[in-house]
Design brief:
It contains seven helices and 15 strands. The model has no long low-confidence stretch (mean pLDDT 94). It has three domains: 83 residues, Ribosomal Protein S8, Chain: A, domain 1; 77 residues, Alpha-Beta Plaits; 85 residues, RNA-binding S4 domain (Structural Genomics Hypothetical 15.5 Kd Protein In mrcA-pckA Intergenic Region, Chain A, Roll). The strands form four sheets. Strands 10-15-14-13-11-12 form a six-stranded antiparallel sheet. It is an alpha+beta fold and 259 residues long.
């Protein structure tokens, strides 16, 4: 089967990845498509890293729309047809009048979890302002949530299944910029990209609020490179574009910040 011990040596989220390896081995053994629960971006990144060179298994992630953060992963032998349509998902509309009692992502997530559902059964939650929210969930939770999710904060809500064509996805806001720095240190590049002081960024790094390619980095001196993705908790993401060296041996870095 899969080289479990070797694969787990290279990951940060060992418990979660071990479960995915179990499911991958089930797919190989039974010649079937197995679909994981929803996985967070750090775990998805590790799966893509450790599975990409394996010839025994194919992995297809899908979260309902191209920019989805939380996704399920379909697993199968390479000789079995596998595409996004086999990663089963359902979309819910959670409608209410939030004009006088605005609700955040945390409020909607808390209300869903308050029904007794675990986090792994829930994908992205799309906030619609005063009209409520939409959520992507595993299909087997639809009937339960449509009957059990009746209130968020103090607001009565009606929860019903909708078609994925009804999802109100907003394209991510992005800002392109260029910075010139003496080095490619994480604190230097990230502070420029997020518009924070270098000391505050250093505090965020040591406080475990910063990830590079979804891996937790706690050293400000860590060197980033072209193609890296920097995520700061509560601030969004920063993609490092083309890097060139100036005549004064400084680094000119193109950045794209996503909010």
């Amino acid at each position: 089967m899969l080289p479990r011990e070797d694969l787990l040596k290279r990951v940060e989220n060992k418990e979660e990845i071990a479960r995915v390896i179990d499911q991958a081995e089930q797919a190989i053994k039974n010649w079937e498509v197995v679909v994981t629960d929803f996985l967070s971006p750090p775990i998805l990144a590790e799966i893509q890293t450790i599975f990409k060179n394996l010839t025994e298994i194919e992995a297809v992630p899908w979260g309902g729309y191209p920019q989805a953060e939380r996704q399920r992963v379909g697993l199968s032998r390479p000789d079995i047809a596998l595409d996004e349509s086999q990663v089963e998902l359902a979309a819910l509309d959670i409608a209410g009048n939030f004009l006088f009692d605005p609700a955040t992502h945390r409020d909607f997530l808390g209300a869903i979890l308050g029904t007794g559902i675990i986090r792994e059964k829930i994908g992205d939650i799309i906030i619609l302002g005063e009209r409520g929210a939409q959520a992507i969930v595993v299909p087997e939770m639809v009937d339960f949530l449509t009957s059990s999710l009746t209130q968020v904060r103090s607001v009565a809500v009606k929860t019903q299944q909708i078609d994925f064509s009804e999802l109100k996805i907003r394209p991510p806001q992005k800002k392109e910029m260029t910075t010139v720095e003496a080095s490619m240190r994480l604190d230097a590049i990230a502070s420029a990209g997020f518009g924070m002081s270098r000391s505050k960024m250093a505090d965020a790094i040591t406080g475990k609020d910063v990830r590079v390619n979804w891996k937790e980095i706690t050293q400000s001196s860590y060197n980033v490179k072209q193609g890296d993705l920097i995520a700061v908790r509560g601030k969004g993401r920063l993609e490092i574009g083309e890097v060139s060296v100036t005549k004064k041996q400084r680094y000119r870095v193109n950045l794209v910040r996503y909010k």
